[in-house]
Amino acid sequence: MKQDKNGKTESPLRVVDGIRGAVPRLAGKIALREASADDLRVLLVFLERGSEHLSRDAGVSEARAEAALDYWREAGILSEGEGEPNEPESEKRPLRRPDELAPATGEETAEIVRRRNLSGVIDEAQRLLGKVFNTTEIGIVAGLAEQLALEPEYILTLISWCHNRGKDSLRYAERTAFSLVSEGVETLPQLEEYITRREAAESGIGQIRRMFGLGERALTKSEEKRFTGWLVDSGFPIGVIGIAYDLTVEATGKASSAYADKILKKWKDAGCSSSVAEVERFIERERAGRGLPEKRPAGRSPKHDEIPKTYDSGDFFARAVERSYQKKD
């Protein structure tokens, strides 16, 4: 949250249309079942009074109020700015696609295979999948080349990738191809980049899932986008994400990935997010700049410290390093 020119605290968040006055009807939602008492207090105060004095009126720290707003934003209850609210994920329409990409007749299929030099692709795909394609399956390959204008190398790479993921159905490859083209993945280099990003993200996301205690539930769209951004777009090492997780829990009392995202963005903007050592040096500089002691006084436990009012205060960055030094000692 930020202050206006008169010093009043204001929030860029607004309530999604149809939510105000309907909180009781949300009781069956996962968001409410998983919300903490602080999350609920913050939401009710926000609905009734807005963002001014939110933390005070809800009886929580500013950091906890920020984390609660992040939680409800992820749940789709709050949205940023003054624009149209985001359409609920459950109501979004699936991508529309042709019922059939394959040619209508065998003669058309044969002509496309000849004209687009698909014989080698079909032979290699049959060898890869360990079967001889029937007329329909050959038609699917021809349709990918003719209707979606995909190069033979693209088609074979896609079939191979689907096979490596345990998906040998050409119908699955067809659906995947249509989705990728709809997203702008239309050339072989774009497909290779997409596959690299997906595989890197899937490997790291499992570790992040365990870190944040998400269990086996499906990730929300915002979580999947955020975690992929950490691992692929920003290239944060898992160790750096782990430090952000520790600081998030210390500041908010819960594992909020949205709050951790703010910490990681700060480190990235400061140019110190490529390694754990860089992050630790950054935290040390912040601690030194605030004149904090090198070590916590004997017998003092971190849990007895006051929770920082805001992540931007920087104090809790230092505590993570101090704890790590104590463990080493």
Could you outline the blueprint of secondary structure elements for this entry?
Elements: E1 2-3, E2 9-10, E3 13-15, H1 30-34, H2 37-49, H3 54-58, H4 62-74, E4 78-80, H5 106-115, H6 119-129, H7 135-147, H8 152-164, H9 170-182, H10 188-211, H11 221-233, H12 238-252, H13 257-269, H14 276-289, H15 315-328
Antiparallel strand pairs: 1-2, 3-4
Structural description of this entry:
- The protein is mainly α.
- It has three domains: 2-91, no CATH class; 106-186; 206-328, no CATH class.
- Helix content is 57%, strand content 3%.
- It has 15 helices and four strands.
- It has helices at 30-34, 37-49, 54-58, 62-74, 106-115, 119-129, 135-147, 152-164, 170-182, 188-211, 221-233, 238-252, 257-269, 276-289, 315-328; strands at 2-3, 9-10, 13-15, 78-80.
- The strands form two sheets. A two-stranded antiparallel sheet has the order 1-2.
- Helix 2 packs across helix 4, helix 10 (188-211) packs across helix 11 and helix 14 (276-289) crosses helix 15 (315-328).
- The longest helix is centred in the middle third of the chain and has 24 residues, at 188-211.
- It is elongated, with a radius of gyration of 26 Å.
- Residues 17-29, 82-96, 294-321 and 323-329 have low confidence and may be disordered.
